[in-house]
Recover the amino acids of this structure.
């Protein structure tokens, strides 16, 4: 007989970077066809879970502008409940570090960590494919966080092939604005016709050829992002990540990151991080590549 689910669990919800992002077309349903390279960072939010036996999902941490029931953490927990019929609930607390609307995947990562953590805490034994499918209903980026491997992605970002990328130091700068993905994808100046390439060609081309098709539109719509890219690109190769406000520079060492941080514009937020091909979430759970 299975023992009742009990206990507590704290796990990371790591950031991601889009090392490359091409928009190759627009579907009849309004979604965009993408090609991208996802990689994780060794920095992110942290989620704390405590099992309840009354089915209640309670998120103690409130985020500005997001109702409790609309938070992806709560939605992920309830989706897992509904899919499995479990009688358990959870008290959840979020230590928020990643900026909202930054393009680092914070909300999607929170949702994925919730699915993975509660699957374990509630002793549901749901396999990764099913968890990823549940995650896709919450957002296109959730499956890559559920699977936890750096990946080449196509479709709307849900068709994933694990890859091994270089793992340099990065400096990530947030220039103080929050960007809604929908606003970027509706921008008339957005590039939507980049010719598709193969994964092999993308990897063979290397970092010097990688770019983000959303960058020009975001820079035009949000001058602070343009300012950050102009400044940071004078220090090291720089790119926008995803459709958010954060820009990142690929660096040769932690010392270089510290040097740039010491000269950063005071009104910007920034942090240094190392690239990871295995998600810190999965590393914490003892998963292997």
């Amino acid at each position: 007989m299975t023992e009742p689910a009990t206990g507590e669990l704290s796990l990371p919800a790591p950031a991601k970077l889009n090392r490359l992002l091409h928009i190759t077309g627009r579907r009849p349903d309004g979604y965009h066809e993408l090609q991208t390279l996802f990689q994780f960072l060794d920095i992110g939010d942290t989620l704390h879970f405590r099992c309840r036996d009354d089915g209640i999902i309670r998120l103690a941490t409130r985020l500005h502008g997001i109702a409790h029931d609309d938070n992806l953490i709560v939605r992920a927990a309830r989706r897992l409940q509904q899919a499995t019929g479990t009688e358990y609930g959870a008290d959840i607390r979020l230590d928020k570090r990643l900026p909202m609307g930054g393009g680092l995947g914070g909300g999607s990562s929170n949702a994925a960590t919730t699915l993975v953590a509660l699957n374990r805490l509630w002793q549901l034994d749901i396999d990764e494919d099913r968890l990823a499918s549940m995650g896709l209903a919450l957002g296109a980026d959730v499956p890559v966080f559920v699977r936890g491997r750096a990946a080449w992605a196509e479709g709307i970002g849900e068709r994933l092939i694990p890859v091994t990328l270089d793992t340099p130091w990065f400096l990530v700068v947030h220039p103080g604005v929050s960007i809604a993905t929908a606003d970027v994808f509706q921008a008339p100046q957005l590039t939507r016709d980049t010719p598709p390439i193969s994964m092999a060609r993308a990897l063979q081309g290397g970092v010097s050829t990688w770019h983000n098709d959303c960058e020009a539109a975001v820079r035009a719509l949000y001058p602070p992002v343009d300012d950050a890219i102009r400044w940071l690109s004078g220090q090291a190769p720089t790119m926008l990540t995803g459709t958010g406000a954060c820009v990142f520079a690929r660096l040769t060492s932690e010392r270089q990151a510290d040097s740039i941080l010491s000269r950063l514009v005071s009104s910007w937020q920034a942090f240094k991080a190392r690239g990871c091909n295995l998600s810190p979430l999965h590393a914490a759970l003892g998963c292997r590549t």
Remarks:
- The first strand starts at residue 8 and ends at 26.
- DSSP finds ten helices and ten strands in the chain.
- The longest helix spans residues 106-121.
